[in-house]
Design goal:
This protein is an alpha+beta fold. The protein is built from 11 helices and 14 strands. The protein has 2 domains: 153 residues, Aminopeptidase (3-Layer(aba) Sandwich); 180 residues, 3-Layer(aba) Sandwich (Aminopeptidase), CATH 3.40.630.
């Protein structure tokens, strides 16, 4: 049985090379994310397993409630191992958290859907839970060896190619903003989208703070679309697990009629960047229907986004669900009751 052999409250040397860079690696397992969440009251724990793999676990106590809640954000990573190895690490984390006084543990590695993974977790008492991140599934674009502009465009729909050409003809240009100077503009455009589509962005200040932190750590890239003197779109992408992944993107909704191809041109630049880095695929992000976690249907809020990403050559890819295990049922019932009381 896999076991946790070391748990530290400070990241060991080379931590990000262990949990961000390998296959399945994620920036939410990084030192930067640990520091960001520590500033919000979470305690990071940097675990090492007896198979020499690693995982970040965040814990939080809420006195006078007993014990603590624990979460491995996008972990434990696969690191090139099979789903049964990932499941074994999740079980090892549960055993560790139980010994430390945890009452519940949640895990949600970025892992292709696997019945074997689900079976092992179910045997250990884990159950599927609603997703902690915005999306479970991903829209992936394959980038086989020899990919170039011609093959990228050939994999897109005719309308997508037309919009890209229209944006270029209109004079829209894409620039990398490595310093993140335009991050507040991305937040503004996302806020407008949230109002229109009726979803919550949460507190913008900490979000922009995270964006700056992940850029400084070298785990992200930020591109902006400019037309004349104005900024008309932006895209922040994580670089982890051997690929680029769209994290946040938005355009100026007030100029969509005038400049309809802004996001198409931004995403083409994103795909070009992935090709230049030698990646074998790129992740355009999720389009899940909250609660259902399936391909959106016409009339649902994310259907247009699904069609947009599919027009760029992306394919819906099923991923493993988030899971949770209750380590101390009595304590967890007290915590749930307290949450209901707080919620009115």
């Amino acid at each position: 049985m896999t076991q946790v052999v070391r748990a530290e409250t400070r990241p060991p040397p080379g931590w990000d090379e262990l949990v961000v860079t390998p296959p399945g690696g994620h920036v939410l397992q990084s030192r930067a994310w640990a520091e960001h969440r520590a500033g919000q009251g979470w305690q990071p724990h940097f675990l090492t397993f007896d198979d020499d793999r690693s995982a970040l676990v965040l814990t939080r106590r809420q006195p006078p409630l007993p014990g603590f809640g624990a979460y491995a954000p996008r972990g434990p990573i696969a690191a090139g191992d099979g789903p049964e190895a990932v499941a074994a690490r999740a079980v090892a984390m549960a055993n560790w958290a139980r010994r430390q006084g945890g009452r519940v543990l949640a895990v949600d590695p970025e892992l292709t859907s696997s019945p074997e993974y689900d079976r092992i977790l179910a045997t250990a008492g884990f159950r599927q839970r609603e997703e902690i991140q915005a999306s479970r599934h991903r829209m992936l674009v394959a980038l086989p060896s020899g990919s170039n502009d011609d093959t990228l465009l050939a994999g897109m729909s005719k309308s997508a190619r037309q919009r890209i050409r229209a944006a270029e003809a209109a004079g829209t240009v894409i620039e990398e903003d490595a310093a993140g100077e335009a991050l507040p503009e991305l937040a503004r455009m996302l806020g407008e989208a949230a109002e229109t589509k009726q979803f919550s962005m949460g507190n913008v200040g900490p979000l922009i703070g995270w964006w700056r932190r992940v850029l400084s750590a070298g785990h992200a890239h930020f591109w902006v679309a400019r037309h004349g003197a104005g900024l008309v779109g932006a895209l922040l992408a994580y670089e982890h697990g051997g690929h680029l992944a769209t994290a946040y993107s938005a355009d100026d909704r007030g100029r969509r009629t005038e400049l309809p191809g802004t996001m198409h041109l931004l995403r083409l630049n994103f795909l070009r960047s992935a090709v230049a880095r030698g990646h074998t695929f790129a992740d355009l992000g999720g389009v899940d229907v909250p609660g259902a976690r399936r391909i959106p249907e016409e009339g649902e809020p994310t259907f247009g986004l699904y069609e947009h990403k599919r027009s760029l050559g992306a394919v819906w890819t099923e991923s493993a669900a988030a899971h949770e295990v209750v380590l101390r049922p009595g304590w967890q019932k007290v915590a749930q009751l307290a949450a209901r009381v707080r919620g009115g």
